[in-house]
């Protein structure tokens, strides 16, 4: 099996722990995989495998992004897929122009490459549970309002059989802004 990659924002430890604790309080037994706090992130772009040997160029291009740090706010719990049997349960995020600008900057930097990125529109989220296995969803799942700083983004390598699964291979601080 080949190695896969993505570009994302790691959720800071304290915020991830709070989100994980709230999710665990729901006693969610409907999904096969619950995301450990150490793996909580926001995917900006999923790359998949590096079929054309472009990882070095990806890393170099990401270093050209110039944006200032910003703050994100968790805005409740939502799902992807059938609401009765959702594929994914996630923490939604409040609309944030800085996050959208960062995602678009990443996309623009990678556009000239031969990557087969996900064509679906970007929906910022933090996956809490995935892979529906059956049962009844909790009646009342909620997350307290939570805000956290984003001061970097990273190129991640996926290790499906390890914990944590997502290893940062290069991190890019946000410091500038045009």
From TrEMBL:
<dbReference type="InterPro" id="IPR009097">
    <property type="entry name" value="Cyclic_Pdiesterase"/>
</dbReference>
<dbReference type="InterPro" id="IPR004175">
    <property type="entry name" value="RNA_CPDase"/>
</dbReference>
<keyword id="KW-0378">Hydrolase</keyword>
<feature type="short sequence motif" description="HXTX 1">
    <location>
        <begin position="41"/>
        <end position="44"/>
    </location>
</feature>
<comment type="function">
    <text>Hydrolyzes RNA 2',3'-cyclic phosphodiester to an RNA 2'-phosphomonoester.</text>
</comment>
<feature type="active site" description="Proton donor">
    <location>
        <position position="41"/>
    </location>
</feature>
<dbReference type="GO" id="GO:0008664">
    <property type="term" value="F:RNA 2',3'-cyclic 3'-phosphodiesterase activity"/>
</dbReference>
<dbReference type="GO" id="GO:0004113">
    <property type="term" value="F:2',3'-cyclic-nucleotide 3'-phosphodiesterase activity"/>
</dbReference>
<feature type="active site" description="Proton acceptor">
    <location>
        <position position="125"/>
    </location>
</feature>
<dbReference type="Pfam" id="PF13563">
    <property type="entry name" value="2_5_RNA_ligase2"/>
</dbReference>
<feature type="short sequence motif" description="HXTX 2">
    <location>
        <begin position="125"/>
        <end position="128"/>
    </location>
</feature>
<protein>
    <recommendedName>
        <fullName>RNA 2',3'-cyclic phosphodiesterase</fullName>
        <ecNumber>3.1.4.58</ecNumber>
    </recommendedName>
</protein>
<comment type="similarity">
    <text>Belongs to the 2H phosphoesterase superfamily. ThpR family.</text>
</comment>
């Amino acid at each position: 099996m080949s190695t896969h990659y993505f570009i994302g924002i790691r959720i800071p430890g304290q915020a991830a722990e709070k989100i994980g604790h709230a999710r665990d309080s729901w006693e969610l037994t409907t999904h096969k995989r619950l995301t450990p706090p150490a793996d909580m992130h926001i995917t900006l772009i999923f790359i998949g495998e590096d079929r054309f040997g472009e990882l070095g160029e990806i890393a170099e291009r990401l270093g050209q992004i110039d944006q200032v740090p910003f703050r994100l706010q968790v805005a409740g719990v939502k799902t992807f897929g059938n609401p009765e049997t959702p594929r994914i349960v996630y923490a939604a995020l409040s609309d944030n122009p800085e996050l959208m600008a960062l995602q678009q900057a990443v996309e623009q930097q990678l556009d000239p490459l031969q990557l087969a990125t996900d064509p679906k529109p970007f929906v910022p989220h933090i996956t809490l549970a995935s892979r529906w296995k059956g049962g009844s969803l909790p009646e009342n799942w909620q997350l307290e309002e939570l805000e956290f700083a984003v001061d970097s983004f990273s190129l991640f390598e996926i290790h499906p059989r390890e914990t944590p699964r997502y290893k940062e291979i290069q991190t890019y601080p946000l410091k500038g802004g045009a």
